[in-house]
Design goal:
Radius of gyration of chain A: 19 Å
Distance between the termini of chain A: 30 Å
Strand order of the largest sheet of chain B: 1-2
Order of helices and strands of chain A: HHHHHHHHHHHH
Structural class of chain B: mainly alpha
Strand content of chain A: under 5%
Low-confidence stretches of chain B: none
Order of helices and strands of chain B: HHEEHHHHHHHHHHHH
Shape of chain B: globular
Shape of chain A: globular
Number of helices of chain B: 14
Oligomer: heterodimer
Number of strands of chain B: 2
Mean pLDDT of chain A: 89
Helix content of chain B: over 70%
Number of helices of chain A: 12
Low-confidence stretches of chain A: none
Strand content of chain B: under 5%
């Protein structure tokens, strides 16, 4: 456990070095969030009755999404891992007395966490001062805020464990391109990155909420502004835990199979 | 004249080399093209489901928004297909590849253009065409000669404006060596948010995209003409006039080339 923690610490401090890049990213994210809020404002003006949650809750959803983009963005996968599989450097990692699954897991979490830590505070701080209803609102209650933190971390873990599946599957396909594209577009859409899940028609939404993708960003961002009822929250957290365990187990199983039949590409 | 003809032939040759090169990896090409197709499908589904809930937005119906989105997507993909060399230019500068381009007796813009020809964008264009066909059937635009011309001008002007932003992005690399992420707002962002007519973002955004960056010229105003909400002939030529934006972009590029210091690798 200790060695994986050091992997985590190493990556985390390394990630914190890229402050200028983070600053450049923040500007983009502000504009992105702002435009997104404007889209929903236009739809709100068209028909306020049809809105599944309050407008300020939607705005908070969008800003939180931007602030924690690095947590949930499916396209932010680790190119280093793909490269090591393609160019054969994986051989060195396989020699080490560590499980590559755990090592990669720790490192992915660390990377995403460090990126989000650099970016989330400026975004949250500034948007808190944007006039209502376009800015960030305060959490619904202290209780909701605690649950928000919990589900945020659970969502991060589910996202990473899902990415791990792609890394491991690359052992079998070698070229990650096709896999990555299919996976990324599926996650973006089904997790609620394109439009938040409550905006889908009810029947579609009910199915989507059971899928593992809904356990990523959807839960935390909705709990924050209190747009989920108590039983809904319980169910969502249970599902998150279930998917986290199921996907991690599947990933580890796959990883073990892959390690048995791994062919090192080149040298 | 002869010079133009010769560089055009050379450019076509560049493209054919690029395409043949890509065809060596056929599976990868088809997968990427298919991926492009599906990724933009996501945006389509997003619009589709939002319009199941809301009948119209600021007076635009579902099929009208689709018409708008498909045109913007075509403009963007065409620009990306041809000007991809500028989009990946930071790599060219950092690796010192640009030194090689400078010593050749040919225009450097042509060489950068020919450097990359991204045929995989055909997937996205295909998707745009499918959506376009669907929205034409649904939106009941009464097509006339002038509207077809408007559409052609929109494609030409839009490709030019997006390409201009790719050039600006590349020109800034001369000074910063690395790509500046915020330019993405004007390329990927404009594609992403250009799916809705700019008018829905409010008056100020419309003013900004009319005066500073000519996005409204290639999207909002000609769209109004297509939908028959404006009849002034001026709207027909606006998208073509938007090509003026290439001028400042090329000036910046020339300025950058003059100030280019090799990265030394």
């Amino acid at each position: 456990m200790k060695k994986y923690f050091s992997f985590f610490r190493l990556r985390f401090t390394m990630g914190l070095q890229y402050r200028a890049a983070a600053l450049a990213g923040i500007v983009t994210q502000f504009v992105w969030g702002f435009m997104e809020v404007m889209v929903y404002r236009a739809f709100y003006r068209a028909d306020a009755e049809a809105f599944p949650m309050s407008f300020s809750a939607t705005a908070s959803y969008i800003w939180l999404q931007q602030a924690f983009l690095a947590f949930f963005a499916a396209w932010m996968m680790e190119n280093e891992i793909f490269d090591s599989i393609i160019n054969g450097n994986i051989a060195y990692e396989l020699c080490r007395p560590v499980s590559i699954y755990h090592m990669w897991f720790a490192r992915s979490i660390a990377n995403r966490l460090s990126r989000a830590v650099l970016r989330c505070f400026p975004i949250l701080f500034v948007t808190a001062f944007v006039p209502k209803p376009y800015g960030m609102e305060a959490p619904a209650s202290l209780f909701h805020f605690c649950l928000f933190l919990l589900t945020l971390l659970l969502g991060l873990a589910v996202t990473v464990s899902f990415c791990m599946l792609v890394y491991v599957l690359t052992f079998f396909t070698i070229s990650p391109q096709g896999l990555r594209m299919v996976f990324t577009s599926a996650v973006e859409f089904l997790a609620g990155a394109v439009i938040p899940l409550p905006f889908f028609p009810e029947r579609v939404q009910r199915i989507m909420e059971l899928l593992p993708f809904a356990s990523m960003q959807n839960v935390a961002l909705r709990i924050y502004s209190g747009s989920m009822t108590m039983p809904q929250m319980q169910k969502a957290i249970a599902l998150q835990t279930f998917w986290l365990i199921a996907i991690t187990l599947a990933g580890r199983l796959l990883c073990r199979t892959a390690e048995l039949r791994v062919t090192v590409q080149g040298g | 004249m002869k010079k133009v003809y010769r560089s055009l032939r050379l450019y076509l040759h560049y493209i054919s080399v690029n395409v043949r090169c890509m065809m060596q990896y056929k599976t990868s090409f088809f997968l990427s093209a298919m991926g492009q197709f599906f990724v933009s499908f996501n945006v389509f589904w997003g619009i589709f489901f939002l319009f199941r809930r809301f009948p119209r937005v600021e007076g635009f119906t579902y099929s009208e928004v689709l018409l708008c989105f498909s045109i913007v997507l075509m403009q963007f993909s065409l620009a990306e297909m041809f000007a991809r060399g500028f989009d990946t230019f930071s790599g060219t500068v950092r690796s010192g590849e640009f030194d090689r381009i400078l010593v050749r007796p040919q225009n450097e813009i042509m060489q950068v253009l020919g450097n990359r020809f991204e045929l995989t964008r055909i997937g996205r264009i295909l998707q745009a065409i499918v959506m376009f066909g669907y929205s034409i059937v649904k939106s009941e635009v009464s097509w006339s000669f002038s509207k077809v011309v408007t559409l052609l001008f929109m494609l030409v002007g839009g490709t030019a404006v997006f390409a201009a932003f790719f050039i600006i992005y590349a020109a800034l690399c001369f000074f910063t060596l690395d790509g500046l992420e915020f330019i993405n707002i004007f390329t990927d962002g404009a594609r992403e948010f250009g799916k809705y007519p700019i008018g829905i973002y409010g008056k100020r955004m419309l003013l900004f995209t009319t005066i500073f960056v000519p996005y409204a010229w290639i999207q909002y105003y000609p769209l109004l003409y297509l939908l028959g909400r404006r009849t002034d002939i001026l709207y027909l030529f606006l998208p073509l006039a938007a090509c003026w934006f290439l001028l400042p972009a090329l000036c910046l590029w020339k300025f950058g080339v003059r100030h280019y210091q090799s990265s030394g690798s």
